[in-house]
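This week, study the protein below.
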Amino acid sequence: MPTKFFLLLLLAVSSAQVQAKETPADNYKAYCVQCHGSEGTGKGVNVRDMSVVPRDHTDAKSMSARSDETLFKAIKEGGTSINKSILMPPWSATLSDEEINDLVQYLRMLCKCKFG
């Protein structure tokens, strides 16, 4: 009987871990709002100390000019990887490729634009 209980407990914990995956919105709030702002407008709390104004993720015209691959690379490898600001840090040590792809799609939702 204790073995069955242990297996059920293990399954419950595993299931909770799978369901606890951060959403793209959660990741945006955790890693992006300090610079890009809670609305994505580029007016986060850090902007007053920055020499470069962060990208406005709600600007459909500007965001449509960037491919999903470019956005992915900027998030994964940092701003310098796409010849942009050194202030944009690389998130490859923090976010998985799947999370970065999800974040790119979240950015597309913020700007209400689609790009392939």
